[in-house]
Amino acid sequence: MDDSKQAYTVAEVAKMMGLSPQTVTRLFENEPGVIILNRPTKMNKRRYRSIRIPHAAYERVLRRLSN
Q1: pTM over 0.85
Q2: Which of 64, 60, 62, 56 shows the shortest CA–CA distance to 17?
Q3: Strand partners, 3
Q4: Which range of residues forms the domain containing residue 19?
Q5: pLDDT tens digits for 23-44?
Q6: Which of 7, 10, 29 is nearest to 19 (CA)?
């Protein structure tokens, strides 16, 4: 697959960067291009989010963190 089209999960990025999934979520949740799918909250059910991080957003954050 072409890297420019690939989207990573939070767990994949956490492993690649050596960070916790919670830290990765905080780093990427407001980043342009990141896809966040929310399940509507229901009574007695926890919030569920599915986050996909495009390769371009991953590279952008890496560059920003290395400066």
Answers
A1: no
A2: 62
A3: none
A4: 3-66
A5: 999 999 999 999 999 887 777 7
A6: 10
